[in-house]
Write a structure and sequence with these properties.
The protein has eight helices and 13 strands. The chain is α/β, with parallel strands linked by helices. Strands 3-2-1-4-5-6-11 form a seven-stranded parallel beta sheet, sandwiched between helices. A two-stranded parallel ribbon has the order 7-10. Helix 1 crosses helix 7, helix 2 runs parallel beside helix 4 and helix 4 packs parallel to helix 5. The longest helix is centred in the middle third of the chain and has 21 residues. The protein starts with a strand and ends in an 11-residue tail after the last strand. The model has no long low-confidence stretch (mean pLDDT 91). It binds nicotinamide-adenine-dinucleotide (NAD).
Length: 271
């Protein structure tokens, strides 16, 4: 089975590629990175390509993948405010480009990495898939629009899909810090003897899901969940104050917590 993974060298991508290799898949990776650091395996073929570019179609033409797991994205909420054009270009136009190639080269199914950011600030928890969508950030908005395009392409061209809305993904090789990667940010600052920074009062909750579980969900969605949308989360909300407390206990450190003003678009609920 040949699976094309966009964003394969990324945090979730590398775990997903490793898991697909364990399942004996042949993996094609498309990413704009020059130095992808993928698992060394003869079943992985790497293309250094921007998903927005016209070259993408040629890759599908040559490789004729059976499935596509679309992970490449402009992934940061704060950066979506700094550069909304780029966020929309990659997350919306890039997704349309991937969808067109999937349809043209008869890909059996696309699995899409959406985000719980599409919900905005719902007042019930745990968040269920039926909850109203009300993205509060440009990033959440671009994921919301990309989801809508996937459903429209599916209706128009009978393209099978599964949309997965991940909560806060954490785990080994996470490279983002700050509000987007709060677990890693806390650990790194603790290790460096610095206070953990919390934006807001720390009572905001997050739902943390382990990256290997997300990789397994990505691979599983190739064979189940046709035309459906699922949350990929733990279903448990943890406040940032609780998280900082637990990490201090675990690492036997007593760093203080530094509070900073809440940033725009950052959700106060569990994801
Ligand atoms: N990490 C999380 O907590 C989280 C939560 C919800 C959703 N997601 C989604 O999961 C997916 C993977 O996230 P991640 O945490 O692994 O991010 P990541 O930044 O580690 O990986 C994203 C990859 O996409 C690539 N990329 C970006 N723009 C590209 C372009 N124009 N063309 C080709 N490649 C491009 C990057 O080079 C990178 O390798 C993303 O779609 C993200 O929005 C992640």
């Amino acid at each position: 089975m040949k699976v094309l993974v966009t964003g394969g060298p990324g945090f979730i991508g590398r775990h997903t590629v490793s898991h697909l290799l364990e399942q004996d898949c042949q993996v094609i990776v498309v990413d704009q990175r020059k130095d992808p650091k993928l698992p060394e395996d003869k079943s992985v073929t790497y293309y250094e390509t921007d998903i927005v570019s016209e070259d993408l179609e040629q890759i599908f033409a040559v490789e004729q993948p059976d499935y596509c797991i679309h992970l490449a994205a402009h992934v940061s909420v704060p950066r979506s405010y700094e550069n909304p054009h780029l966020d929309a270009e990659i997350n919306i136009m890039g997704t349309i480009n991937v969808l067109r190639a999937c349809v043209r080269y008869k890909v059996r199914k696309i699995v899409f990495s959406s985000s719980a950011a599409v919900y905005g600030n719902p007042d019930i928890y745990p968040i269920e898939e039926q909850c109203a969508l009300d993205p509060q950030s440009f990033y959440g908005m671009s994921k919301y629009v990309a989801e809508s395009y996937i459903r429209s392409f599916s209706t128009q061209y009978n393209l099978d899909y599964t949309i997965l809305r991940y909560a806060n993904v954490y785990g080994i090789r996470e490279h983002r810090t700050g509000e987007d990667g709060v677990m890693t940010a806390f650990i790194e600052r603790m290790a460096g003897g610095m206070p953990m920074i919390i934006y807001g009062d720390g009572r905001q909750t997050r739902d943390f899901v382990y990256v290997r579980d997300v990789a397994v969900a990505n691979a599983l969605a190739l064979s189940v969940g046709s035309y459906q949308t699922f949350n990929i989360s733990s279903g448990v909300g943890l406040s940032l104050l609780e998280l900082s407390g637990r990490l201090q206990e675990l690492y036997e450190k007593t760093n203080s917590v530094q509070f900073m003003p809440q940033k725009p678009g950052i959700s106060i609920v569990a994801f």
